[in-house]
Amino acid sequence: MTQIIVGATRDGVSTMAETFAASTPHPIVELLRHASPAAVDVFTRILTRGPISRVDVARLTGLSQAAVTKAVGPFIAASVVADNLESLKGGLPGRPANPLRVRPEALVVIGVKVNADDIIGVATTFAAEILATVHLKIDDTEFGTVVDGIDSVVEQLNLQLGDRAAKVGGVGVSVSGDVDSENGVVRESALLGWSNLPLGSVLHERLKCGVLIDNDVRALTIAEHWFGVGVGTASFAIVTIGSGIGCGLHLNGEVVEGAYGVAGEIGHLPLTSPDRICTCGRHGCVEAVASSGAIVKAVVDGGARADLTLQGVVDLAHAGDPVAVAAFDEAGTVIGTAIATMVNLAGPQLVLISGEAVADYDLYDQRLRAAFAEHAFGAAANCRIVIRPHSFDDWARGAAASVIRAIVTQRYPQPRYN
Q1: How confident is the model at residue 414, as a pLDDT?
Q2: How far apart are CA 42 and CA 313, in angstroms?
Q3: Across all residues in the chain, what is the average pLDDT?
Q4: Whole-angstrom distance, CA of residue 13 vs CA of residue 162
Q5: 64 Cβ contact list (under 8 Å, min separation 6)
Q6: Of residues 79, 85, 86, the one with CA closest to residue 107
Q7: CATH 3.40.630.10: does it fit domain 233-387?
Q8: Considering the entire predicted model, what is its pTM?
Q9: What confidence category does residue 97 fall into, taking pLDDT thresholds of 50, 70 and 90?
Q10: Taking the domain 27-105, which CATH number applies?
């Protein structure tokens, strides 16, 4: 059973599956799929840094200006890249230049974030600018319920897009846990209660389009890498605090994905007592004391009423309740230790702290920073910790950004048609 919170009805309008039923992939997807590595590099610089001059593209890629002009030619001809005569910001007055920029309206991408009780969907431009949003409540996380919900969200976004739906190039879906993006399999998601489920292939058949499945924190990191703080930043990490404790890594100009699709899982570092059991079934995980659910459980076990919500725990902590304060103190200490461990290993220059619990970050801050300072080794302690609130729409935008990157880098799964 699902309940649409934002969206329109589908009466009299073709379904998204019908919209995607054409036997040929999106022309822009095809254009990029057959582009040379040099052309992909040039296009990526224009997408993430545009408007940008050919001179600057040449400097960033190491290509000659002539090679840049040759590489970008097919994209200009296809109206994917614009070549406008105007003065570049910071350029010399009276010295016109022809900056290159990707036309954001050339491609539309859909991103979907699956949570335990709702599904969030957004449609974005090629530059990951949000065009439309849909929020869908779900009663459970059974696989069939979620698949139906994603299908409904995509259809509702299609309705909101109107004529722009014809430009949709594909769908990205992000979930928490261990995700095999290459094969579209959710190998393990404690939040959803899933194990080895072929979400990608099922959605391929349902939507009749290319579908990319990704870990939610990694997708959020990709969005920051291409369209946020990662542009021009050598290395950073995102740590998310909420129903789980996640971490995405951006090092040496790339998002770290891991040989097996798992990287940055600081929520499952064994940094707490073995008698603390995590939702993943393992003992001593950071999430076993620092997730929202673990904090609520600690306060309930400490004598609070059984129906206490997270907001109720927050209110108790702000009022000085010793059990609630102790629960947040323990969570902050463990998260700070986990961040220090990650920083000691990977050495990012910046850590962004995000997630639904960031609104109550004041309850974590002091203990988190103290634990980080205690355990960060040497110059690693110079790593800055910055708060970066994200809404669930931003999480869905991350799924869209993951698709955009996969399309550009020629790693996007192609539709499978019967």
Answers
A1: 55
A2: 51
A3: 87
A4: 10
A5: 58
A6: 79
A7: no
A8: 0.83
A9: low
A10: 1.10.10.10
In the chain, the amino acid numbered 325 is V
Distance CA 253, CA 226 (A): 10
- Same-fold call for 27-105 versus 233-387: no
Strand ranges across the sheet with 108-114: 2-4, 130-138, 118-124, 108-114, 168-175, 211-215
Whether 270 and 285 have beta carbons less than 8 Å apart is answered as yes
Q: Which residues contact 370 (CB under 8 A, 6 or more apart)?
A: 333, 336
The answer to whether the CB of 200 falls within 8 A of the CB of 184 is yes
**CATH among 3.90.70.10, 3.30.420.40, 3.40.50.1980, 3.40.50.700 for 2-23+107-221+394-408:** 3.30.420.40
Average pLDDT rounded to a whole number, residues 235-247: 90
**Spans of all domains in the chain:** 2-23+107-221+394-408, 27-105, 233-387
Query: Does residue 10 surpass a pLDDT of 90?
Result: no
Burial classification of residue 388, based on how many CB atoms lie within 10 Å of its CB (0-12 exposed, 13-18 middle, 19 or more buried): buried
Instruction: Report which residue type is found at 348.
Output: P
Q: Which residue in 168, 138, 141 sits closest to 155, CA to CA? A: 168
Q: Which of 271, 264, 360 is nearest to 312 (CA)?
A: 360
Question: 140-175, pLDDT tens digit by residue?
Answer: 999 999 999 999 999 999 999 999 999 999 999 999
Mean pLDDT confidence for 64-70: 95
The residue-averaged pLDDT of 198-224 equals 93
Beta bridge partners of 380: none
Confidence of residue 400 (pLDDT cuts 50, 70, 90): very high
**Strands 236-241 and 81-83, sheet pairing:** unpaired
